[in-house]
Amino acid sequence: MEFNRSGYLVCCYLICKLGWSSHDALNAFENARRSPIQRGSYIQSLHKTDSDRRASSTLTTRLYN
């Protein structure tokens, strides 16, 4: 069974709102649902979202410190 769209949204929330890494979010989702997100494009997007969030956070820290 594939959990792609719902898993993608859950992982996005964990990454963007709670500050989790993409790897931690994907692992938590897989452990909770017993099935990983299988679409490579979704996984790549989650890793990019995490990378962009970290870069933005680093830039903000540099600007305001």
TrEMBL record:
GO molecular function: polynucleotide 5'-phosphatase activity
Disordered as annotated region, ranges: 46-65
Entries under SUPFAM superfamilies matching the protein: (Phosphotyrosine protein) phosphatases II
Domain of life: Eukaryota
Biased composition (Polar residues): 56-65
Name of the protein in its database record: Uncharacterized protein
High-level lineage: Eukaryota, Metazoa, Ecdysozoa, Nematoda, Chromadorea
